[in-house]
Structure prediction request, 873 residues.
Amino acid sequence: MDTDTAHSIPADEAIAVLATNATAGLGAEEVARRRKEYGWNELRAARRVPLWRRIAAQFADALVVLLVAAAVVSAAVWYVERESSAPFEALAILTIVILNSMLSLYQEGRAEEALAALRAMSAPEVTLTRDGKLIRVPSREVVPGDVMLVAEGDAVAADARLIETAGLHTLEAALTGESLPVEKSTEPVRTEARLGDRHSMLFSGTAVSTGHGRAVVTATGMRTELGKIAGMLEETETQLTPLQKDLDRTGKQLGLVVLAIAAVVTATLLALEGIQNVHQVVDVLLFGVALAVAAAPEGLAAVVTVVLSMGVTRMAGRGAIVRKLPAVETLGAATVIASDKTGTLTKNEMTVRAVVTAGQSEEERRLLLTAAALANNAELADGKKHGDPTETALLVAAAEAGLSAGALRAEYRRVGEAPFTSERKRMSTVHEGPGGRVLYLKGAPGSVIPLCTRYGAAPLTGERRAAVLQEVETLAGQALRTLAVAMGDGDKEENLTLLGLVGLIDPPRQEAAAAVATARAAGLRPIMITGDHPATAKAIAREVGIAEAPRVMTGADLDRLEHTDVDVFARVNPEHKLRIVQALQQQGAIVAMTGDGVNDAPALKAADIGVAMGITGTDVSKEAADLVLTDDNFATIVAAVEEGRAVFDNIRKFLRYLLSSNIGEVLTIFFGVVLEGPLGLNVGAGFVLPLLATQILWINLVTDGAPALALGADPASPGLMRRPPRKREEGVINARMSYGIGIIGAVMAAGTLWVMDASMPGGFVEGAGTLAYGRTMAFTTLVLFQILNAFNCRSDERSVFSGLGENRWLLAAAGLSVAAQIAVVYVPLLQTAFQTVPLSAADWLRAATVASSVVAVSEAMKWALRAGLVRVS
Prediction:
């Protein structure tokens, strides 16, 4: 139908035009036909970049362009000089460039797949009437003509004409700019009414603030008003996370330094060495560009995206769905978890915890539970609970005592009922049983006890009445909701016999105390926020370990909130949460805040990490949140914090690895050129490069790829949740990392140059090998250095030998890198391309022994840090 006029025609006419049924909705066949006609209810995704353009983008980097150009020149020189049977150097360089591009494409693909999965996990659902039945389906499955039901907290899935409303108001600021809730009705409005005045319509992208209603869908996907706006946007720029921006900035700064070093080395070689022909000029230029390409950490942002996506997947597996990627990195810095009580710290199901009778005998207990099960409208069927939570708790307690509600109700047929009201505060039922007519009653002690004249078998004297009231106070002091249960002959609520008291509570989740303890050990401060009575909140807070003697503040006291050292906020309204978040943030806290209602949305948005409840949460709260819990469990929040810390840790691990390895390469080349004479590298005529361009690029390919990604999949360190949160202002590269990166890079360079020196005549250590042999030894030693360094980088404190086999991906990556290096050393074609010579077992042992020095130095540094001999923050 014409979506621009749906608001102006009567509801029944809209139903007729859309050929649907207001009561039964559409049938399955018609839904399938309309989906084929109208497509899925989703906005058109940004056009996927074609594969050829994505491949071309890999070669758009200036350094890569220079490298390809140099390889082409090298091939041209070969063509003129014909010094070998094929342009092996140029072919090797181009092959490595292609392999690097394939790795980058794989990383980008993994990131896109993870983000797509993330969008699918967080997609909202909608309630529809189809084939006369109410169903919940993902919003993308809605078609025009569907009858949609909306209620408070729901996100509106499509444009729709209202056919029934009850106090319905929607939030339309995102579409029309209207800041106040808009009242809706079924009455038509004038055709020319502007969007904000079309009160008979619901619009996709808006949300229900209060009330409920039914509407028939008039437009889906790009045909909705929101879709029309989206169609005006030609493209949306992909936003990097703060961490990715920080790393991108760091990578560019380091890249400039590396480029400067490469330029200096290249200029020095061209100016000072005996360059005799064009081929040597090409070699020097290739060498300089290769050094810059290999050492510049230009792939940091891509690897970060992959690591973040791994974290998102792991969090989803633990019940926390990440809706906004920056939340992953922010979680690692959280200092406060402000959590709801009901359902998050507790089970969200009432449980009988205490039964008090006159003589505390089993017979009296069974009689009380019989009465509680009969004065009861709840049901237990097929393992499910139906009805009021308090009444279902009483049925469960009766069942645990061997009393079947079904059998009791068959034996004692109900013939009358006086229902619970807020004025009476009690409920009674009358039954015909084996002994005649009997009345059972339960309710608030203050309402039930005055009707009783006996307690058990004895009269309810003044003294005994006082004792019962004292027992009520005792149960209340334990934060138990207390009910009195009584019975009487006949059908009147008078001269009753008090059977006793029942204390109920929504008990803490079994895992809550352990999760709170884990949070506290990690430096996180748990705070409870609840609408419950202060005494109940205080008891639960004490039981789960939030505090031994919890400090409690009520919502009424929030107006004079002068400090935030409060453990429990009780009797608060949702709007109070925003004040609590802001007060905590003003004190420097990084706050994770839970919520489930429409009114929680401002607090969830204001919090550093908004956490919505997946089970009880409204669509509005989920839309506002960064994280959605599929199980509404406090322990899941703590698990998400652990995953957030692990992600940040892993980013630091591979960053430590990449930078220390790259610096090792740069220092090896720089000092190899500067100290060419003392090291004995100036053999024969002309200049000598410590490593060839192809060798540098190969090291970059086999050591910077798979091992770096494997470090991103490293499991969480054992002491991760015993550390304090990282400071908000702390960068990804801190002083301790810089200190370690510099030392490890220097060790790699010194060891590699020593091996090369010892493999050739002259220099500091006399050797007897050829230049090709010396280069092969240095080449292999540097590869082994970097492979072993990957294991060092798993922690800056924990020994490399601790949990060595935990990361199977890293073991596999290391094995793959070693195998690739063996191939380069022994396969004839690769020997020609990379100018290597075969090595003996003794050569490998010497290279591995020298490379293992990086482990020894790293272990010494870690020991010094653990012992407090070196203090670097």
Observations:
- The chain has 30 helices and 25 strands.
- The mean pLDDT is 82.
- The radius of gyration is 36 Å.
